[in-house]
Amino acid sequence: VPIVVARNGEGPTVLLSSGNHGNEYEGQIILRNLISTLDAKKIRGRLIVLPGLNAPAVRAGRRVSPLDGGNLNRLFPGSTNNGPTSAIAGFVTQHLLPLCEFGLDFHSGDPSSCYLPCAFLTTCSDSSLHEQNVAAAEVFGADHTYVVEGWSAKPSFDANAHRLGVSFISTELGGGGGTTPETLSVGKRGLDRVLDWLGVMPASHLVPCASTTFLDGMHPESCVTAPADGIFEPCVALGEQVVDGQIAGYIHIAWEPGLTREVLFQSSGIVAVMRRTASVKAGNYLFTVTPELDRKAVLRMSGRIDPT
Ligand SMILES: [Zn+2]
Question: Which part of the chain is the Succinylglutamate desuccinylase/Aspartoacylase catalytic domain (predicted)?
Fold first, then answer.
C-alpha cells in the first residue's frame, strides 16, 4: 500500500486517502498530483497520504480486492488475521488513525453511476465531533453535501474514524469510471480549502465557494429502479430538481421494438446519483433523489440511534 508522510514543525496530523474503491478515480488523481507537487517546507504538522488505499483493487481497476473480494469500506475496523483487505483496514485503524486529528477519504461513483460532485458526511453520536465534521464539509465547499446517518455505515472508514474521535469526511466526486475537469476541480479546490482551514498547509490563494446545500441520503423512497430488463433512456440530468410522479425515464425492451416501460419518480428532491450505463436489468438502480436538509436539521442528526 503506497504511503507518503510529510512532516514539518508543529501542527495537526491529517490523513488523506483515495482508492478505498479501486475504480473511483478523481481522488486517486488529486492525491497523486498533491504528492508530486508537495513542498514539505509549506506544511505545518504532518500529512499522511494514501493515494491507493486498497492497493490490490487499485492495481486491478476494481471496486473490491481481487485477492479476497474484500470491499475495504465495509471491513473497518479490520483485523490482522482475516485476509488482506481487512488487514489494510486494521493497519489504518491501529497505526494511523490514532495519530490523526482529521481525515478525508475520496470516493466517486462506480463505473455504472455518477454522483453530483459532493462532500459526503456521515453523522456520529458525538455532537461536538459532528459539528466539526459539518464545518469541514462546509469548508470543502462543494455545491452539495450528501448526508447519511452513522448507524447505516458502521463498517465504513468514516464511522470507524468517528468512533476513535477523529474528525473525518469523505467525498463522492463524480465517477462513471472516469473523471472530468469539473469533478477534479471540485475535489482539488475542496482539498486546498480544508488543508488551509486546518492550518496544515496554508494556501496563498483559495478559490472562493458558495455555501453547500445538504442532501438527505437517508430518504427511503429516494431510489428509483428499473422495472424490467432493457435499455435505459433518462429524461432528467444529474442535479435537476424533480417532483413525485414526474417521468424519470423509459426502459426500452431490447427484444421488442416499440415496447417501453415508463419510470416515474416516487419522491421530490435533487437528483444526486444517476445510472451511467444504458443496459439495465430489472431491479438495477437508475436514480437517487435527495431532499434538501437545512443546517439545523443536519446538526440535529447527531446522536440518532439505529432504528433497527
Ligand atoms: Zn467508493
Answer: 11-196
